[in-house]
Design a protein that fits this description.
Layout: E1 2-6, E2 9-12, E3 17-24, E4 30-38, E5 45-51, E6 57-59, E7 67-72, E8 77-82, E9 91-99, E10 107-108, E11 112-117
Parallel strand pairs: 2-11
Antiparallel strand pairs: 1-3, 3-8, 4-5, 4-9, 5-6, 7-8, 9-10, 9-11
C-alpha cells in the first residue's frame, strides 16, 4: 500500500486547511486510516483515525472539535479537515494505514508540512 499526503501549507491562526491522503495498491487489506503529526523536537503523535468499513472515528484530545477526519472509500482517499488552527498545530502531518488485525500502523505516507502563524 502506498500513501500520498497533500494539502499542507502556511495559514494564519484561526484559519483552515484540508489534508488529503490518497492510497493505492492493496488498499482492500487495510482497516484503519489515520493521521499523525510531528513537530520540531517532539515525538510523532496521533491525531485522528477512521475505520474504513464503518466510518467510526477517534481523535486526540488536542484536536477534538476542531479537526474532522473522513474517508471516501470509492476514491481510496482520507481527508483531515482542520479548522481553528493554532500555532501549536504546526508540524509535519503523516497519513498512515493499518491492516486488519494489526496492532501497529503498517504503512506511512511521506508527510506534508503545516505551518500556522500567530
Amino acid at each position: 500500500v502506498q500513501l500520498q499526503a497533500s494539502g499542507g501549507g502556511l495559514v494564519q491562526a484561526g484559519g483552515s486547511l484540508r489534508l488529503s491522503c490518497a492510497a493505492s495498491g492493496r488498499t482492500f487489506s487495510t482497516d484503519y486510516m489515520g493521521w499523525f503529526r510531528q513537530a520540531p523536537g517532539k515525538e510523532r503523535e496521533f491525531v485522528a483515525q477512521v475505520r474504513r468499513s464503518s466510518g467510526v472515528t477517534l481523535y486526540a484530545d488536542s484536536v477534538k472539535g476542531r479537526f474532522t477526519i473522513s474517508r471516501d472509500n470509492a476514491e481510496n482517499t482520507v481527508y483531515l479537515q482542520m479548522n481553528g488552527l493554532k500555532p501549536e498545530d504546526t508540524a509535519v502531518y503523516y497519513c498512515a494505514a493499518k491492516r486488519f488485525s494489526s496492532t501497529n500502523w503498517d504503512y506511512w505516507g511521506q508527510g506534508t508540512q503545516v505551518t500556522v502563524s500567530s
